[in-house]
Design goal:
The protein has 366 residues and is of the alpha/beta class. The chain is built from 13 helices and 14 strands. The protein has three domains: 71 residues, Winged helix-like DNA-binding domain superfamily/Winged helix DNA-binding domain (Arc Repressor Mutant, subunit A); 128 residues, Response regulator (Rossmann fold); 144 residues, Rossmann fold. The longest helix has 21 residues. It starts with a helix and ends in an 11-residue tail after the last strand.
Amino acid sequence: MNAAFANQNKNEFVYRSLLDAIRRGVHPTGSRLPSERELADQYSCSRITIRHALERLEEKQVIRRLQGNGTFVNGVDPCPSADFRVGLILDSEEDELYNDPWLSELLYGMISAGGRQPFVISLIPVSRTGTVMETLAKRGQELHDYNGFVAARNLSAEEIETLCTLDLPFVLLQNEKLKGSHSYISIDNAQGAYLAAAHLLAIGCRHLFFMLPEQLPQYQDRVKGFQQALREKGIPSGEEDFVLRVGVDDCADAERHIENLLARKIPLDGLLLGSDGCTYSAVTTLRKHGVRIPEDVSVVMWDDFPWVSKVLRLPLTVVRQPFREQIVSAIEILMSQRGSYKPSSIQRIIQPTLIVRCSCRTPNNN
């Protein structure tokens, strides 16, 4: 990174930090700001950087500088919404945004977060072969146009390094391997799988299979949770015994797996399905062969996406992930770091819940 870009970023940081401090009342209306030298010491930067920030504040009439007397704070609108801008980084093409049920959950969560602390949020859909920086460049933007980011996709090492170098706060919702190093809101995937398996076992299922996308960052955690529930019941829990992996085309792979189980007459009475596509395809294939749900096979779906239940006309038992709580928590972390030069690393783990509906039999009709 060249020196000119780094200096530009530091200018932006000092400007926004001072503006935020004024809005929060750290420097009340009518008060005198510290001198340029004092501010330079406070922000560990040059007096030239401080001068640039003060000039911008003066242009916006946030402050007034009186020669020989110092710099004073004018009255300013305390609402930070126009000045705190969050970028939500998504793993999606632009034309896929409005067909994604997960995004709908995140948007509802952001509406809730916005009711608590005003901010502006922009969606940044990044193609699978692109980067955040390339996507912003195509829109005529740069990273420092934002005050912080929520990453709902796996960021590359280069993207992480760039955000850290620029001292831009960010919160990860993906990147399982990095959750110990950066701010991260994690859903306890192992516990979700454990809850689902334990329920299937409690209602009498003994021939369970777990079908899930192998490319998921949470793959190993989910498998471990499932294994734990099986071990507690004394059932062999080797991954090869119960895991059915699917790829990008989860619908086709799910159909193939079910067809294979039925053709080989492998006992099956419980299914945990790790995606909405898997669920739709697996249930449709079972029904095609006259397999009844829940009488013959009990089904649990990962995530509570209502469209699957509606299309299948089957109220599905689900592992509900708290996506809304996840995004609210991420926004709270970003807002808490406003005005901080060195973003802190905060990790939180939130728990999923099991919602039992008609796709699982009751213990009385085993």
